Description:
Elements: H1 2-40, H2 44-57, H3 59-74, H4 78-95, H5 99-117, H6 124-164, H7 166-182, H8 187-194, H9 198-218, H10 220-232, H11 240-245, H12 251-267, H13 287-297, H14 301-305, H15 315-342
Helix pairs in contact: 1-2, 1-3, 1-8, 1-13, 3-4, 3-5, 4-5, 4-6, 5-6, 5-8, 6-7, 6-9, 7-8, 7-9, 7-12, 9-10, 9-12, 9-15, 12-15
Amino acid sequence: MNKYVKRYCIDAMSGMAQGLFASLLIGTIIKTLGQQLLRLSENVVFKFLVDAGNFATEGHVVGAAMAVGIGFAMGVPALVLFSLVAVGAAANVTGGAGGPLAVLIIAIIAAELGCLVSKKTKVDIIVTPAVTILVGALLTVLTAKYIGAAASSIGKLIVWATKLHPFWMGIIVSVVVGIALTLPISSAAICAAFGLTGLAGGAAVAGCCAQMVGFAVMSFRENRWGGILSQGLGTSMLQMPNIIKNPKVWIPPIAASAITGPIATCLFKMEMNGAAVSSGMGTCGLVGQIGVITGWFEPSEVAIGHGAAAITPGFMDWLGLMLVCFVLPAVLTWAFGLLLRKLGWIKEGDLSLEEKAPVVQEKPVVEGDSETRSE
C-alpha cells in the first residue's frame, strides 16, 4: 500500500506539478512580462515574449507537459513516456477547467497499462505506444469530461464558500494547503486540480508562505542563511524528518497560517487569480507572489470562470502581498517558535537540516592490552 501511495499520490502528483510549472506557469509569467513591456514600447522582442508565452500556455501543450511529468516521475519506459504526450493533451482539453485532475488519473492508468506490454513483444515500437494511446484516448472519451466537471465543481464550491465565509474558510484553506505543501505531496497539483483561485487562492498562498518563510526564519539559529534560501525559496518539505522526530516543531508555522489566512481574505482581500498552480507554490521561486501580481493584470481562464476581473493594484494590495507573504509569517512563526523553545517543546538542534554523524567513543587504551603491547 505504501508503495502505491508513494507512486500515485506523491511521485505522480509531483511530476504533474513540475509539468504545470514548465508550461502553464512559466508561460504565463513570460506572457505577462511581454504584455507589460509592450505597454511601454512596441518592440519585436516584447511581442516575441507574448507569443512564446501563448505557445506554452495552450491547453494541448499544458496537458502534454503534465502527462510527461507524471510518466517521468513514475519511471516509465521511453515509448510509454513519449506516448503520454497525446494522452495528456487529449485529457486536459476534454477535461476543461478540471483538466489537470483528468490528466492525473488518465495518465497514470494509461502509463501502467503501457508498462504491462512494454518490451513484451518483438514489435514493441508499435504495441507499446498503441496500447498507451488507445487506453488513454478511450478513458478520455469516457471519463475526462466528468472528472474535469467534478474537480471544477469542488473548486467552485471552495471558492464560493471562501467568499461567503472568508474568516473561517481563510483559516481552513490556509492551514490545509500549507500542511500539504510541507508534506511529501504536491500542494501545487492539488490547487491546480481544483482550480483554486480568488480569495481561496489567496488563502492558499498565505498558508504556503507561512510554512516556507516560517520554517526558514524559525530555524535560522540552526541553519543560518543556507536554511533561509533552501526553505524560504525552495521548500519547507526539508523539515519533514525533523517533524517526524518532534511533531511540535510544526505548531508555529501552522499557527501562523491560521492567522495569515483570514488576514489575507478579510483584511486585505488578497486574491490569487493567476494560474491556479501558483496558489500551492508559496514563496518557491516567488511563484505564489508572481501569480498574485499576474492575476491583477490578466486573470487566468479559471479565475475568470470564478468571476475574476483585471484590476489596477493600489497601495493596500501591495502592502497586503508583502505582509501576508513575508513579514507576518516571519514574525509570527518566530514568536511562536520562541515561546515553544522556552517551554522546552522545541530544543536546540530540533530544526537542523544537517545530518549529525553519530558520536563514536574511542576505546581507551589499557596498559598491557594485547593489541597495544609491543612485541
